[in-house]
Write a structure and sequence with these properties.
Layout (H helix, E strand, L loop, with lengths): L16 E8 L7 E7 L4 H12 L7 E5 L2 E4 L12 E2 L5 H5 L5 E6 L5 E11 L9 E6 L9 H13 L6 H8 L10 H10 L5
Parallel strand pairs: 4-5
Antiparallel strand pairs: 1-2, 1-7, 2-8, 3-4, 3-6, 6-7
Length: about 200
């Protein structure tokens, strides 16, 4: 006789929703995003949420540093005496718990985009906050591979000044006009949906 009993779902229901403020370090005016993420997400999926919200293209490696522990993607080709924990196996809730108020997120080890992530609130889940969502933000993300903070400063100088020797080259390289103050929360969340962030 075949059992008709339903197997228990492997998907755990969220118990907490973390409201995070992600800010790119050492750039003024500050480039930041406010996010809702469930405690059930892995850190690997949090990486994807941050990527979509900030405007990065997920073209480089990343690493979290949380309460003295590193999380990322271990790479056998690059031996490390202290390899990071696999962020695909680490969920936000157990890692952050009640005690972590701030941690760091590094994207692109070459350009070295360091982000400070602050836990602003811990909320109870409801019908609208369990899906990864960008609530607010300010200013555009730098272009990929622009050369870090110094390269971004030089890029802005060139694209803002039509008489600059590199103006046309930077315009073409970036794909047209670049507005450093540009941010659209609707487009950001649409991008998250297109990338299936959180699924």
């Amino acid at each position: 006789m075949v059992s008709t009993a339903k197997k228990p779902s492997r998907r755990t229901e969220p118990q907490r929703i973390y409201q995070l403020r992600v800010a790119l370090d050492e750039i003024q005016p500050t480039i930041w995003r406010r996010l809702w993420v469930a405690d059930t997400l892995t850190l690997a999926k949090l990486d994807r949420v941050i990527q979509a919200a900030m405007g990065w293209t997920n073209s480089h490696l990343h690493e979290f540093k949380i309460a003295g522990q590193r999380y990322g993607i271990p790479d056998d080709e690059w031996p490390d005496d202290n390899p990071p924990s696999d962020d695909r196996r680490s969920r936000i809730g157990p890692v952050l718990g009640d005690s972590v108020n701030e941690f760091s997120y590094l994207y692109d080890f070459g350009d070295h985009w360091q982000h400070t992530v602050k836990v602003e609130k811990v909320l109870k889940p409801n019908e609208i906050n369990t899906w990864p969502t960008c609530l607010a933000g300010q200013n555009a993300c730098p272009p990929e591979d622009v050369g870090g903070i110094g390269g971004y400063s030089e890029f802005l100088e060139a694209v803002r000044d039509p008489t600059h020797d590199e103006h046309i080259a930077m315009w073409r390289w970036s794909g047209g006009p670049f507005d450093p103050a540009g941010f659209d929360v609707n487009a950001t969340n649409a991008r998250s949906e297109e990338r299936r962030v959180g699924k």
